[in-house]
Write a structure and sequence with these properties.
10 strands; Lipocalin; 4 helices; about 170 residues
């Protein structure tokens, strides 16, 4: 189901229509019919509510997603996180303003950090922004980051330290 579907459906209902989900594996003729139907309905709604209505409606849909973004706090992220792989950035230890990073090359370093909504912002010692990392998921035991530092892979951390997996 699309993100925030229920809130978006309520917004559509307030303009007198519904969103319908048709699934993932859909035949081309169904897609083409849906596009034609959508175009016809948008034209009807623009005649009913005025030119530019559809653009305004799409902005309202976007604002639902933006409003639903969770503000992650330092208390949420504080503590130790383990990648459980013998690779770069395998252990992160968050304190109030710093993150201690353990590496697979026997070097460790500390960065300053801050949070903005669902983004981890890493700073060097002069408080210049070094990296902005999207936090995909944060639960009590799981931290999934889109990337960390110069590693561009999605990284899944746990609060539980397990047996190393070598890569």
């Amino acid at each position: 189901m699309p993100m925030n579907f229920e809130q978006k459906q309520k917004l559509a209902n307030s303009s007198g229509f519904n969103f319908y989900l048709i699934g993932c594996n859909v035949k081309t003729d169904i897609i083409n019919r849906a596009k034609y139907y959508n175009k016809t309905i948008i034209e009807h709604l623009e005649r009913k509510y005025g030119v530019g209505w559809w653009t305004k409606f799409q902005t309202q849909l976007d604002s639902i997603d933006n409003r639903m973004i969770r503000q992650i706090t330092k208390d949420d992220i504080k503590g130790n996180w383990y990648l459980n792989k013998w690779t770069m950035y395998h252990t992160l230890s968050f304190a109030d303003t710093t993150v201690f990073v353990d590496n697979h090359i026997d070097s460790v370093f500390t960065l300053n950090y801050s949070l903005s909504n669902d983004t981890l912002i890493l700073h060097d010692n002069k408080l210049r922004i070094t990296y902005k990392e999207k936090i995909i998921t944060l639960t009590q035991d799981t931290l999934i980051i889109k990337s960390f530092g110069n590693n561009q892979n999605i990284l899944g951390y746990s609060r539980t330290k397990r047996k190393w997996i070598n890569e």
